Automatic annotation (TrEMBL):
Cited Pfam families: Fer2 (PF00111), Fer2_2 (PF01799)
Pathway in which the depicted protein is active: Alkaloid degradation; nicotine degradation
Keywords: 2Fe-2S, Iron, Iron-sulfur, Metal-binding, Oxidoreductase
Protein name: Oxidoreductase
Domain 2Fe-2S ferredoxin-type: 40-116
GO molecular function ontology, one term from the record: metal ion binding
Amino acid sequence: MSGGPVWIRGPYGTSPLRKGIHDMGTDIHADGGLSRRHHSETTLQVNGKPHTLTLDHRRVLLDVLREDLDLCGAKKGCDHGQCGACTVLVDGRRVNSCLLLAVSLDGCEVTTVEGLTADGEELHPLQRAFLDRDAFQCGYCTPGQICSALGAISEAAEGHPSHVTDPSVPSGRPVPLSRDEIRERLSGNLCRCGAYPRIAEAVEDVVR
């Protein structure tokens, strides 16, 4: 097969690609799929449980959580890291799971909104605060908002400043989470229903 042209469809029609298959650095099978060398065995610690999967190198964490592990709390909104609906925690830090390649997280601890309850029954204090404050409408962004808020609370406690942090706060000291701090730190999570005031109130209830 490598001796003849490989036909590809491009923006200007179909044309032969005369480079050998291996010259392109990709093993293309007759069915158009990629070879096994483009997959890796990856172990993810998700909500305290290990999951060992053989993953295509191109797959992002969000798709693995939803399609392989049936954890559908994290949502696919923009798929470009701009809306925050896919936010989860990786080793305690909030991330946009639609941007992270899953194979890069081998051995990492991933926490989704489903993993915030200790026994699957009792709600996390932040989840309870969202309910008490009615801090959602359609609920699509809520899992990402909650995971992002948890990450923000942790970052502030560890002394990581935000754009609005008072410069007089000593470096490395916990940053008080005022309403402005909460708004700034959650500004990467969009709520198209406009529940921002109640979201901020819910976070305030938890950090008081």
